[in-house]
Amino acid sequence: MTQLELLQSIDFHDQPVSGLRFELGDMKEPSFVIDFETYDDEAKDFVEWSLQLNDLISFSSTRIEIASDSDFDFFSFHLAMDGTFKGDILLTSGFGKLNVSINLECRSFVLANRVAKTTR
């Protein structure tokens, strides 16, 4: 079975997604990775999968909303200029839960002020 045939054989409806990430490396072959699980009826257990979409030509998405009652917040954000901007971001998702670590390098950035909501 080819990789395409294997991918097409998976029923993606209601399969749990455990993670999403970008792997940009040196920007020559940026990729988007989706980690998910399927249930194997014969084994009576979940199978973990990682789908890596490589060498992206274009990518866009709708806004990913984070629940207002979530504990998702910044733990730290460092950015320094050394020819390019290099930095790291650490996001927390609550006590005892996994953190999200992002390392980045960019040529420029834009920080825009958005109108604050009156309620949170």
Summarize the structure.
The chain contains one helix and six strands, in the order H-E-E-E-E-E-E. By secondary structure, it is mainly beta. The longest helix is centred in the first third of the chain and has 7 residues, at 3-9.
Task: Please give a handful of descriptors for the protein shown.
6 strands; three-stranded antiparallel sheet; 2 domains; 1 helix; mainly beta; 120 residues
Question: Topology of this structure?
Answer:
Layout: H1 3-9, E1 17-23, E2 31-40, E3 45-53, E4 73-82, E5 84-92, E6 100-106
Antiparallel strand pairs: 1-2, 2-3, 4-5, 5-6
Oligomer category: single chain
Give the strand order of the largest sheet, numbering strands 1, 2, ... along the chain.
1-2-3
Number of domains: 2
What is the percentage of strand-forming residues? Answer: 35-45%
Instruction: Label the overall shape.
Output: globular
- The value of Rg in angstroms is 18 Å
Uncertain segments are none
Describe the structure in your own words:
By secondary structure, the protein is mainly beta. The chain has 2 domains: 1-57; 68-104, no CATH class. Helix content is 6%, strand content 43%. It has 1 helix and 6 strands; from the N terminus they run αββββββ. The chain has one helix spanning 3-9, and strands at residues 17-23, 31-40, 45-53, 73-82, 84-92, 100-106. The strands form 2 sheets. The chain has a 3-stranded antiparallel beta sheet, with no helix packed on it. Strand 4 and strand 5 (84-92) form a beta hairpin. The longest helix is centred in the N-terminal third of the chain and has 7 residues, at 3-9. The radius of gyration is 18 Å and the shape is globular. The chain starts with a helix and ends in a 14-residue tail after the last strand. The mean pLDDT is 79.
